[in-house]
Amino acid sequence: MKNFSNLKGVNEKILKVKQLLVELEAEAKQFPALEKNSKRALASIKMLELNISDILAFDLADS
Amino acid sequence: MNHNEYWNPVLETMPREKLKILQFKKFKRILNWAYSHSKFHRALYDTAGLTPDDICSFDDIKKIPKVEKSMMRGIQNKDPFPYGDALCVPLEEVSIFRQTSGTTGQPVYQPDTWQDWEWWSECWSFILWAQGYRTKDRVFIPFGYNIFVAFWAGHYAAEKLGCEVVPGGVLDTQARILKIKELNATAMMATPTYILRMADVANSMGIDPSLLSINKITCAGEPGAGIPSTKKRMEDAWGAKVYDHSGATEIGAWSYECSNQPHGMHVNEAMFLVEIEDIHTGEIIEEPGRKGKMIITALDRMAQPCIRFDSKDVIEWDSESCSCGRSFRLIKGGVIGRSDDITKVKGVLLSPGAIEEVVRSIDGLGDEFEIIVDKQGDVDRIKLKVELLPEVTRLSIESRLKDQLRLKTNLGYQIEFYDYGSLPRYEVKAKRFKDLRKKNF
Q1: Helices and strands, number each (H, E), in chain B
Q2: Is the sign of the CA dihedral B262, B149, B133, B185 positive or negative?
Q3: Which of B12, B14, B107, B124 is the most buried (most CB within 10 A)?
Q4: B414 strand-pairing partners
């Protein structure tokens, strides 16, 4: 398996961005442009989770 | 091979034992999701006396009932309209409708959310990156941009990779060729049938397609790019590398040939779980070299999950690994055919792909052909219609064609020769095989 340095650090950043977007979406009920763009960005963040976060969540990263 | 050869260098080179753990954990996740959000799936598993908690090991996965296309047809057009109760998200979350092409019957509807659509293009990103698509590429996509998924996700994946995409939608074939020439397009995606058709039309326009700037072509929708003689015809005609890919509306983009062209396709085992089932016994085939039908799970598709879907595609594991360094397993020769199409003639198993391999390997025959199986009295008969290229005589071809067919398929044929251009031409998926013994013909 190819090593990717700092997978854990990258994942922490992904989760932070996700959290921020969840908060933005929640705060935007009267602001469609903010709500829909945040939600759409979350769909892209999910791809980062599939590519990176799952590896850590399932404990598959090289130690 | 360096990291830049992989879309995801960690997942694509993950040791197999870790990949298996990844697949199992993701399988459990999608199973739990479907069980708790889809009445259809819950009823299916309850009837089998199973809950997700009963799946404790990789071997337990085969206990989960398979889903057939006919079952999906049975639930649609009901609430929530039009998808029925396999839908796992509120209808308001569905952002796009697609349907299957209906090649094998009533089309199946497929809902996707924004996230599912991102997932579709993510799967395609693995494919295009492995085939060498990069920012320098200008990708021409000559398909109808309609209700069928076809190359839609390929379009968005190419955009994601940073390629420049030219949507060749409603243009006719001649206009598409002129646009490729005008823009110096470097890559293209289409069915093998249409790639050959476009070459034919280009030649009739006095344009040699091999002198155009296309250097790579991604094929899907038919097995042709995995059939050596058809692949060679396409590569010779366009002077380009031709790569195979397989996907389906209700599954996703699950496999791809990498730029090493290993005579097979990698299964994207980070996103899909592929099982091969013996067509007769239902046993799961683990070892290479035995053909069976594919049972597939899309591990991350959420709106309408695809869990142990009986695809009817016939495949076999390859005993060789690929020198590209990916740990994703190879299926030998790509998708060999469909279990629906593999039929017994005079007691011998016949695969239309084997006939295609012979016809396309013989210089002097055109690209088009037609296979008709019927009965003469009580005896099966196979009629093969082929076209002779201009200035080629039947005499120079017939015995070689018969010999090769006998050698490769163990069957005799009634061969009919036609002038070049006589047989039907197709622009998407071809229908070259007809079994008139079946009632629906």
Answers
A1: 10, 20
A2: positive
A3: B124
A4: B383
| Strand pairing class (B343-345; B348-350) | antiparallel
pLDDT tens digits for B398-408?
999 999 999 98
Q: Is B6 on the interface with A (CB under 8 A)?
A: yes
Residue B434 bridge partners (DSSP) = B372
B-interface mutation test, from A51, A62, A63, most B Cβ less than 10 A away: A51
d(CA B178, CA B182): 6
User: How far is Cα B94 from Cα B114, in angstroms, rounded to an integer?
Assistant: 7
**Does the CB of B258 have a partner CB in chain A at under 8 Å?**
no
How many Å lie between the alpha carbon of A52 and the closest alpha carbon of chain B? 8
**Is the distance from CB of B187 to CB of B137 less than 8 angstroms?**
yes
Checking if the pLDDT of B343 tops 90, the result is no
With beta carbons less than 8 A apart as the criterion, state whether B332 and B318 touch.
Answer: yes
The reported pLDDT for the residue numbered B441 is: 41
On chain A, the residues whose CB falls within 8 A of the CB of B13 are: 1-2
For range A19-41, the mean pLDDT:
95
User: Does residue B262 have a cis peptide bond before it, meaning omega lies within 30 degrees of 0?
Assistant: no
Q: Which long-range contacts (CB under 8 A, 24 or more apart) does B65-68 make?
A: B65/B308, B66/B295, B66/B308, B66/B309, B66/B310, B67/B306, B67/B307, B67/B308, B67/B309, B67/B310, B68/B310
Percentage of chain B with pLDDT > 90? 82
User: Is residue B159 within 8 angstroms of chain A, CB to CB?
Assistant: no
Q: Is B15 on the interface with A (CB under 8 A)?
A: yes
Q: What separation in angstroms does the CA of B437 have from each of A3, B164, B441?
A: 57, 48, 8
Smallest CA-to-CA distance from B279 within B339, B231, B368 is with: B339
The predicted-structure confidence for B81-130, as pLDDT tens digits, reads as follows 999 999 999 999 999 999 987 766 788 999 999 999 999 999 999 999 99
B318's tokens = 């390859």
Q: Which residues of B touch A47 (CB under 8 A)?
A: 118-119, 122
CA distance B416 to chain A (A): 53
For the record, the structure tokens of B117 come out as: 């659509």
Q: Does A8 touch chain B (CB under 8 A)?
A: no
Judge contact between B177 and B198, C-beta under 8 A.
yes
Q: What ipTM score was computed for the predicted complex, to two decimals?
A: 0.95
Q: Are B285 and B319 in contact (CB under 8 A)?
A: no
What is the rounded (10 degree) CA torsion for B271, B133, B115, B87?
A: -60
* Predicted TM-score of the model (pTM): 0.91
pLDDT at B313 over 80: yes
Give me the mean pLDDT over the B198-213 stretch. 97
